[in-house]
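To the wet lab folks,

You asked to see what we're planning to order before we commit. Fair enough. Below is the target structure as tokens, and below that is the sequence we designed to fit it. If anything looks off to you, flag it before the synthesis order goes out.
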């Protein structure tokens, strides 16, 4: 690792942005820093080469993380929370554990194939668990405390009122 890797102001800004907003992809970082894409690509590559950042490709996006800060499960959670539809499903399941497919369709307003697509992805990442009762399937978050901890830790990086409303409801439930 280059000991002076963060001496350059531009590179330090890129590192600090990713550190505050783990799981962001190239365009999100570019918009957040208002930096030309070529320059940003160069610095991201440099930071990866020098093992200050890691990246993980998630379906359509290459997402960036500060090295050694998050577990692999936390990275999977953040990757899903950074996408609007999976985030809506996760937040719903945190507030309404053991929801069925039909209930989620009604509440979330997805088409059946869209909901099935995202549930399959969340199941494969271990973020959602499926329980069968006869022909019905119920979904829950197996590690809700971890997901909520990730949401609380990175709340400022989610520019989404849905996350704010969820956390307000979550904490209001603790008062009971």
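Sequence we intend to order:
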């Amino acid at each position: 690792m280059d000991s002076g890797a963060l001496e350059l102001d531009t590179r330090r800004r890129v590192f600090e942005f990713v550190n505050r907003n783990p799981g962001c992809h190239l365009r999100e970082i570019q918009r957040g820093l208002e930096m030309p894409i070529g320059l940003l690509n160069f610095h991201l590559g440099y930071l990866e080469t020098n093992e200050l950042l890691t990246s993980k490709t998630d379906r359509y996006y290459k997402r960036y993380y500060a090295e050694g800060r998050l577990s692999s499960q936390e990275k999977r959670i953040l990757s899903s929370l950074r996408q609007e539809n999976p985030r809506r499903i996760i937040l719903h399941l945190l507030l309404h554990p053991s929801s069925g497919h039909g209930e989620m369709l009604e509440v979330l307003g997805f088409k059946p194939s869209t909901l099935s697509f995202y549930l399959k992805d969340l199941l494969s990442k271990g973020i959602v668990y499926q329980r069968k009762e006869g022909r019905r399937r119920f979904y829950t978050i197996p590690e809700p405390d971890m997901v909520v901890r990730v949401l609380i830790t990175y709340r400022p990086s989610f520019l989404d009122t849905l996350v704010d409303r969820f956390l307000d409801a979550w904490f209001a439930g603790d008062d009971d």
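Structural context that might help your review: DSSP finds nine helices and six strands in the chain. The radius of gyration is 18 Å.

Thanks,
Computational group
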